[in-house]
Amino acid sequence: MTRHHPDSLSLMDYSAGNLSEPLALCIRLHLDECPECRGRVDMLESLGAVMMEQQPKVAIKEDMFGAILARIDSDDTEADSPDGNVGVAPKITPKQSALQKLLGEDINQLPWKRQLGDVSVLDISDRFPGQRQQVVLQKLAAGGKAPAHTHRGEETTIVLQGAFADQNGVFNQWDYVVLNEEHEHKPVAVGCEDCITLSVLSGPVKLTGTFARMLNPFIR
């Protein structure tokens, strides 16, 4: 079960098609495993359709945006569906198809490059031509620790395999997290398998450990 989710603004941008391709992929992968967020997106799409139909007749009030977000956050989005199943049926590409289309092979067999200590990376930004963001797969060896760091921009991450923990909690497979320059953390891989994540960065990370700081000029 996923415990960490995109916020309502991110889901609204996803529903409206306003996100970059890498960020939309992160949310799509999360939605495939999260009935709660699928329900929110389904509600947003329904509200958007109604607003489009009534656009010539009704002027949108300035506070309507806030009201929509409040309704999404307060409603029980896991109501029973007509066929008796809980949640809303996904309207998205299955996660395996999305990942295989992007990577073309098993995620554990990719040409990983050792970066620091227990961390290996694979920059796949070139698979998203025309995007300014850096898109990186990161693998933290089972039981391993990543160097303490913060961020020079925003980092959006979804866990593809395994789990990691930091002072903010435990993040399991398909959990979604957004960090920025206000956050400093030191992830640790938990469980008995490597933790693999997909991250979209608007700026490079900044190492904060005593000795690791010397490596900052060499980190993109």
Please characterize this protein's 3D structure:
The protein is α+β, with helices and mostly antiparallel strands and 220 residues long. It has five helices and eleven strands; from the N terminus they run αααααβββββββββββ. The chain has helices at residues 8-16, 21-31, 35-54, 64-74, 95-103; strands at 113-116, 119-123, 134-140, 149-151, 155-161, 163-166, 169-171, 176-179, 188-190, 195-201, 205-207. The strands form three sheets. A six-stranded antiparallel beta sheet has the order 1-2-3-10-5-8, with helices on one face. α1 (8-16) crosses α3 (35-54). It is globular and about 55 Å long. The model is unreliable at 76-93 and 211-220 (pLDDT under 50). This is ChrR family anti-sigma-E factor. Residues 107-198 form the ChrR-like cupin domain. Pfam families: Cupin_7 (PF12973).
